[in-house]
Predict the structure.
Amino acid sequence: MAAPVDDHMFSLCVDPCKTNSSVEVRFIDNIKGKGLFAKRSIKKGETIFIERPLVSAQFLWNSLYNYKACEYCLRALETAEENARRLSGNPALSLPHPELCRVRPELHQVCPQCQVMYCSSECRQAAADQYHRVLCLGPSESDPDHPINKLKDAWRSVHYPPETSSIMLMAKMVAVVKQAKDKTRWQRLFSLFCSRTANEEEEIAHKLLGEKFRGQLGLLHSLFKAALYDDHLSRWFVPEGFRSLFALVGTNGQGIGTSSLSQWVHACDALELPDQQREQLDSFIDQLYKDIDKETGEFLNCEGSGLYLLQSSCNHSCIPNAEASFPDNNFLLHLNALSDISPGQEICISYLDFCQRDRSRHSRHKILRENYLFVCSCSKCMSQMDEPDVTSEEEEGEAEGETEGDEMEDEMTDV
């Protein structure tokens, strides 16, 4: 197992730009492209690697709705109690075992120019060194007419929750290259992500922006160019280049979720308590989540997305042998083994959530084709080739129809 990561020392974690002793990226074929393979035996439950993204960004609606996250690492900035009070709508709520909350407000810092928040001086400095000097709006942070704010507003007007991407991920890519001494190196790193054909790029834009995507894509392109144009990156600012950049982020962006409350709950679960105290604590947490569900619904986390070089090399399987998680309450991605993995075996994650993986083969293929533009040929899908080509909803409808028909037939017989 990988050593635990100190809350504010993630700079020491795996650099995705360096070689990794556990895995290697290989070219598979012209259809699947590249894949990630084990270089050694990996045991179930083992952390295969910990990866920091090249860039990451909080979703814009998520930020607007007061989900407070570090602008650099997306660490949740509310304490667990503050988070629970806001999500439950109960300002008087007190959490037991407050010492288990790992948020440290005394370390929080703001950019002195634009006042955006960071969880630590290290994050503030890292952001300034990497991209923030380009993106800092200074006293114009709240000015709706600033070109970057106009770009953000336009994105929010075409991409509503639940969010899956952010135009600011693209903006940070530009800003990183603009600030970098070695601009060619960063452009090369971004070029390593999956590229798409023109038709596929259009499908991705359509999926992210809806039916009026062509006009919306044109508007975003115009605002993006006005806010961030740079001669070194002129190919990203022509219509075709912008569409490619858009598709890159839409296809490769890995969702990130952070939550001080969730981290507190996991810490509570690990406590060794007498049976009665354990029952009381579990009951309190269960009721808290019921209250949150009633008040807030399913949007519990600070949410965003990032570009991860190693993780983006993982292909999909409906029976994955690895999964990504964010246990450190920041953007550090932990890839953990779900089963034993042999040297030379491909490491696969699932692009589907847990519930989607239980749906019919046809339903899974429909989701993957619409969102990722490929047809899965994993062992589970191959073993289900003879299943009827209907989605899970259609299957449920047919089952309901059969039940209703049987009931009607029984009623007619009784008469």
Summary: The longest strand covers residues 23-29. Residues 392-414 form the longest helix (23 residues). The two ends are 68 Å apart (CA to CA). The chain is about 45% helix and 15% strand.
